[in-house]
């Protein structure tokens, strides 16, 4: 539930190119789920299973994309749009941005090196450290207890939540969100084995480049490259607790769910969908529009449009056929035991 907002439904209709059915002068003071809404709230219906709540909801307005939903409760005001879920998500995004991006100024104590350049409407929270030659773009908000290393760039309209650590030389594009305790630019896991069984660290002197409109979840780590750059391309969305190793490239608009890991020097194509707890080994080249089922272990390159499942991960159809055979193994074993017994008895005679 989100309260303390104030706008008119006709303004929403203009933004979403929607049609108002009901009170065109209605004022919206809150946003909520349809079950828990109060008077003045706006909510939405997308899934048919929530239609029953339309009869009893206290919401003043409902965003819909199916005109037939109006018949459920004609006493409400409706905003008819092309896609109710997307419109509601955009509404929440804009309200959230308005609340967050309203912060300005530099809190004390904090440290900002004199060589760094801080643009307009920037917020830097208390106990944050801004190193040498850092550039921070307009309207970027850096919450308390953050570290921004030397020669790093954070472009405009970014949100850096508390506890984020951004190592030296990192480059972050426009409209990015880094959630609490994420680490950008830590050393890649590079060690050279010696004859005596010990490991010598290989210095990681590259950097991390995060392009525009990227979201990084809490406690996610993206390692710097050994020599060049670890690259997260535009539109990528990464969940909490994800490991991206050195020299990895993640293609545009790829989404990666929690507890997944991508090993060094692997390249993911555009529009990949990586399920939770997926592991992808190093030095692979994955295609575009690839889907990875949860807990898959990927050990080979993929083609465009594949859906991978299992360990080692195989194409979906092969996995399903193999799984069906595995399910039958107990009955096959039983039949084999019976055949073995029959053959033994025949041989004994």
Give an overview of the whole structure.
β5, α2 (51-54) and β6 (61-64) form a beta-alpha-beta unit. The relative contact order is 0.05. The mean pLDDT is 94. The protein starts with 6 loop residues before the first strand and ends with a helix. It is built from four helices and 39 strands. The longest helix is centred in the last third of the chain and has 33 residues, at 316-348. The protein is 18% helix and 27% strand. The chain is α/β, with parallel strands linked by helices. The strands form six sheets. It has a twelve-stranded mixed sheet with strand order 8-11-14-17-20-25-28-31-34-36-38-39. A ten-stranded parallel sheet has the order 9-12-15-18-21-26-29-32-35-37, with no helix packed on it. It is flat. Among the domains are: 7-97, MurE/MurF, N-terminal domain (Udp-n-acetylmuramoylalanyl-d-glutamate--2,6- Diaminopimelate Ligase, Chain: A, domain 1); 164-312, 3 Solenoid (UDP N-Acetylglucosamine Acyltransferase, domain 1).
Summarize this structure briefly:
With 349 residues, the chain is an alpha/beta fold. Helix content is 18%, strand content 27%. The longest helix has 33 residues, at 316-348.
Topology:
Blueprint (H helix, E strand, L loop, with lengths): L6 E2 H8 L2 E3 L5 E2 L1 E2 L9 E4 L6 H4 L6 E4 L12 E4 L3 H17 L4 E2 L4 E2 L4 E2 L4 E2 L4 E2 L4 E2 L4 E2 L4 E2 L4 E2 L4 E2 L4 E2 L4 E2 L4 E2 L4 E4 L4 E3 L5 E3 L5 E4 L4 E2 L4 E3 L5 E4 L4 E2 L4 E2 L4 E2 L4 E2 L4 E2 L4 E2 L4 E2 L4 E2 L10 E2 L4 E2 L8 E3 L4 E2 H33 L1
Parallel strand pairs: 4-5, 5-6, 6-7, 8-11, 9-12, 10-13, 11-14, 12-15, 13-16, 14-17, 15-18, 16-19, 17-20, 18-21, 19-24, 20-25, 21-26, 24-27, 25-28, 26-29, 27-30, 28-31, 29-32, 30-33, 31-34, 32-35, 34-36, 35-37, 36-38
Antiparallel strand pairs: 1-3, 2-7, 22-23, 38-39
